[in-house]
Amino acid sequence: MGTFIQLVVDGLSTGSIYAALALAIVLVNQSTGLINFAQGGLAVLSAYIAYVFVQWNVPLIVAILIAVGISFVIGGIIERLLIRRFEGGDPDTAVVVTIGLLTLVTGICAFIWGYNNRQFPSLFPLGGINILGATVSLRSLGTFLSIVVIMLLLQALFLGTKLGLALRAVSINPRSSALSGLPVGRLLMVGWGLAAALGAIAGSLVAPQLTLTPGMMDTALVYALAAVIIGGLNSPIGAVVAAWAIGVLENLAAVYVPFIGYDLKIAVPFILIFVILILRPQGLFGRKVVVRV
Fold first, then answer.
1. DSSP labels for 140-175?
2. How far is CA 30 from CA 23, 63, 99, 102, 188, in A?
3. CA-based angle 64:23:7, to the nearest 5?
4. How far apart are CA 4 and CA 73, in angstroms?
């Protein structure tokens, strides 16, 4: 029983890493209607920006806030100068552009800071506590609680604020939104800026656990995309719950399913995607989209 609880706790901790990135992907999709494959690279860039300020003896929390602000500006600039040129066209083209942007941002990080692992300080203290026979690190617990707070704030943004409703309207139908008087261009910039800022928070939460490298988010991005598909592209809660489920089921399958083991546990999220897409294509928490033709 103690082993089972430890596997669940470790799975929730790992799932929180996936959830941090999944929330940023959901935010971009809710704001612009796109799936941003560059989100992992932008999160890494933001973490490096915070790291630079920490090296200048700026307090960690201040460094992260500065990185969040800079990332917001970078996200808005990327939307205005790059993504906007492809908006209104084939969505697949814009997705390919975000993949190219991921490669570019990762290359820039590697060129400036190199590929050496760097230790990023944690917002949360070292040490752990014992819960039902399982050891829970304070760092993992802090990351878990931070993800819960961010998830609830995003859900409140999209469902309970005028800005959130405007962002959703623009992502669904930009032309009708413009005719209704909404500043579509400005809202798209805000959406990308918010997603980049959220990526900065995600990078700062994840970097202490993974160590800071240009490819830090590559594997997490795959799992985050799986969580978004399973949970629902339009549901922050769904993305987080799915990310936690992936982390837990991976750990359990690696130990209790002999033919999977640790070598094949990466197949778990893809099996879940296959099952969910057959039973509920919009995701566990997603909404069906009705298109008038």
1. HHHHHHHHHHHHHHHHHHHHH-HHHHHHHHHHH-HH
2. 10, 28, 19, 20, 10
3. 95
4. 44
d(CA 5, CA 205): 23
pTM: 0.85
pLDDT single digits (tens) 192-246: 888 888 888 888 888 888 788 988 888 888 888 888 888 888 788 888 888 888 8
- Enumerate the domain spans of the chain: 17-219
